[in-house]
Amino acid sequence: MSPVLVPDRIGRAAFRSVILSAAGNPWISALANRRGLEAGANRFVAGETLADCIPVLDRLQAGGMRTYVIALGEAIHTTEDAAAAAAGYEDLIPEVAARGADTTFSIKLTHLGLELDPELAWRHARRVVALAAEHGAFVRLDMEQSDVVDQTLDIYRRLRSEGLDNTGVVLQAYLHRTMNDLIGLLPLEPNIRVVKGAYLEPPAVALQKKAQVDAAYLQLVRTALAHARFTAVATHDEQAVAEAKNAALKYQADHEFQMLYGVRFGLAEQLVEEGHHVRICVPFGADWFVYFTRRLAERPANLLFLLRNLARR
Ligand code: FDA
Questions:
Q1: Which of 195, 288, 291 to probe ligand 1 with, by most ligand atoms within 8 A of CB?
Q2: Which of 163, 227, 276, 304 is the most exposed place for a label (fewest CB within 10 A)?
Q3: Of 310, 297, 312, 270, nearest to 44 (Cα)?
């Protein structure tokens, strides 16, 4: 099995589907949680605690990069877990903000209980974002699977309607609905992160072919750069980066590039050398497995790397 053969034999979409489905398997998750971090997940995850994260943040900042942190965890099962996740952010934000570096935060609303009770997630999100405002910090709501997009956008709008402008949201180019969502948000002068989309979605709601997603991504990035207050162009795709540079220049757009820890670091360094702003997502937490499976699904070679490392142990 070579990195080239995996996508050829089973197809890229099928590969993604198998890997993302495995994320829900408790046996695989337990095995990975025992051995996965040392076996390769630590390429993408800074560690289990904030203390593991700090040296990574320091290194990136020394290299001229901005950062954001996310405490991993999602789709929790109890209101106590949701409260614990919110409390975790309430500890994290002052501690990270006190470092004085340009580090922002991302949260997943399912981590704050969105699937249990949207009002509960709203209350947690409002508390976290309000606390961040007191510390001069910015918090972005990540975008998750398509059935929570409406609720996520609702909570973003409610935060903004309460004057909490230190927040932004994410739009996923693979969803058929997304250009309309962007247009609908523009009156708010939003801060938008534009991504291709990382979840397993059916054809009824999302584009399935990579070429179509890539094209939709470029269109969304151009529109956001032309009209949003701030655009985070979140991709490791060199062609998209090149197009975004041109569009940002054309529209004089306030923007930055964003990339994930462990992915295409050379490209991030090159952008910084050219004078662009680059922010790296630094994830940490004990519940890293589902995040990690999304990184595996994005690139078959990552799975082979993990399997080789596990076999060596
Ligand atoms: P593409 O998949 O075309 O990759 C371009 C190149 O980058 C590949 O050829 C490969 O070289 C490299 N690459 C990409 N992914 C890699 C990986 N995992 N390992 C190694 N190399 C890789 N999604 C979402 O649904 N909701 C969200 O909130 C976010 N948030 C987010 C923040 C940031 C900062 C980034 C960069 C991405 C996200 N995503 C996301 C994930 C996003 O939707 C998408 O799945 C990945 O970014 C991969 O798509 P690319 O745009 O990088 O292009």
A1: 195
A2: 163
A3: 297
For ligand 1, atom 37, the nearest C-alpha belongs to 234
Q: pLDDT for 6-51, tens place per residue?
A: 344 456 677 777 767 666 666 666 666 656 676 678 899 999 999 9
Q: Which two tokens stand for residue 83?
A: 């409260």
Pocket of ligand 1 (CB under 6 A): 142-143, 170, 172, 195-199, 234-237, 258-260, 263-264, 281, 295, 298-299, 302
| Catalytic status, residue 193 | yes
Give catalytic status of residue 165 as yes or no: no
Q: Cα–Cα distance between 294 and 125 in angstroms, integer?
A: 24
What residue spans define the domains of the chain? 8-302
Which stretch of DSSP H or E encloses residue 169? strand 167-172
* Domain 8-302 architecture: Alpha-Beta Barrel (3.20)
